[in-house]
Amino acid sequence: MLDTSNRPDLPPEISRRRTFAIISHPDAGKTTLTEKFLLYGGAIQMAGQVRAKGEARRTRSDFMQMEKDRGISVSASAMSFDFNNFRFNLVDTPGHSDFSEDTYRTLTAVDAAVMVVDGAKGVESQTQKLFEVCRLRDLPILTFCNKMDRESRDTFDIIDEIQENLAIDVTPASWPIGVGREFMGCYDMLNDRLELMDRADRNVVAESVQIDGLDDARLDDLIPADLLEKLREEVEMAKELLPQLDPQAVLEGHMTPIWFGSAINSFGVKELMDGIGAYGPEPQVQMAQPRKIAPEEKKVAGFVFKVQANMDPKHRDRVAFVRMASGHFKRGMKLTHVRTKKPMAISNPVLFLASDRELAEEAWAGDIIGIPNHGQLRIGDTLTEGEALRVTGIPSFAPELLQGIRAGDPLKAKHLEKALMQFAEEGAAKVFKPMIGSGFIVGVVGQLQFEVLASRIEMEYGLPVRFEQSQFTSARWVNGERQAVEKFADVNKQHISYDHDGDVVFLTRLQWDIDRVARDFPDVTLTATKEMM
Ligand code: GDP
């Protein structure tokens, strides 16, 4: 039986939870791996349903057409499933780099990440970027090297590349036997087992043979002589040259164990899942003000890391995705919405079981629940049983691209404002209202977000919009004493706008302007990030 606890003092219901995200470069196999996770988690009956489900969702919401056309995933969701004695909560991250802010916030809601790399391509740009984000939070990372059924790189090369590029120790949890067409499975280095892939049926789980070291005579019957010799040599070298698995180093984010497999052939996935259970972290302590929140605390606390609006355009509903930070939540509980100090009865929370949304009767620290609401819940909000705690570390980034936006029909300006405010609250874009003049300026991190925004405003509000070049290219939040900020705004009117929270933002085209403010206005500071609260 696997040991489920990294820390002995957690209640078993909490210590068996593993909340994680998958990070990868597009096409490495994230969707396929997710599908297999769900398959083994008993959440779906047959592989292929995740995609099929995706299709069904897309027909419901037309803006998803764009996602489909481009083959990218714009929206994130959370899925729960059981495996052995573990409860896995998998939070999906949007794959495209244009949605990095969303991804960043998603990663604040997980305790670990599974990094998927393509065995032929190694560490690709998007993997590298996402890895850096995980590193900022010292997130433990488990690695899955996928597509081993195809021609892939030399095993040592792959491991070296990860060590070099990502500056993390890599320890092999399994070792591939043969490459490409000759690939036949892996030697499970942690459990001294042979896992043999079934090429005939993609959905058949590998045959597992317990052996007694690589000198075991049974190996001669199972593996062709040349491959066996190579395997013995390589494993011996690996044991000499590569670091041994150190569970503590994994939990601290300094070491990543790597499994080799082929998601599409269902190969190596179970071993990876066992690994997430055994070496992945249980729910972690959450940073908050004025004190941290420990998962084992009796009282319930949670925070919003994502808001998804109009999941069903007919109903204008919004779902706030809440990561439970502590306690044992039960449906119907009254929690305090700390920002507004108002009580909120959580009567219809949803749990995202892979099959569909379902009412969540209960949730423990580590779980992700969805709370339908009409806009009260925003990204960064904390819910507690009364204590004024505020979860920290959920940033908002200054946009890197700015454009003016106008309603195609000038009479619909008010409608546009409403739509924009909603997208701003959802975190889909930054919206700035200039102090002088009319109209709005929209800020995003990647160009594609403009298109998504325009298409959603048209779909969900029936409002065609047009973008216009903006005279500004940078936005900075203005911080300082209220009076100082107001005075600053007053003498820089042409540069000033307000974000959707009413906070003052300095817009400019020139770095020179930003430097000038630092020099001439010592009472205020300009920042490129803002804590959501
Ligand atoms: P994502 O973009 O990371 O979600 O990648 P997908 O899961 O959609 O996979 C991208 C492509 O790689 C698809 O055509 C998959 O069928 C294929 N693929 C995924 N896993 C494997 C694998 O283990 N072996 C091979 N040969 N192809 C795979």
From TrEMBL:
GO cellular component entries: cytosol
GO biological process, any: regulation of translational termination
Location (main, coarse): cytoplasm
Annotated residues for binding of GTP: 24-31, 92-96, 146-149
A GO molecular-function descriptor: GTP binding
Domain Tr-type G: 15-284
Protein origin, superkingdom: Bacteria
Family annotation (PROSITE patterns): G_TR_1 (PS00301), G_TR_2 (PS51722)
Signal sequence extent: none
Keywords: Cytoplasm, GTP-binding, Nucleotide-binding, Protein biosynthesis
This protein's name: Peptide chain release factor 3
Source organism of the structure: Shimia haliotis
Gene name linked to the record: prfC
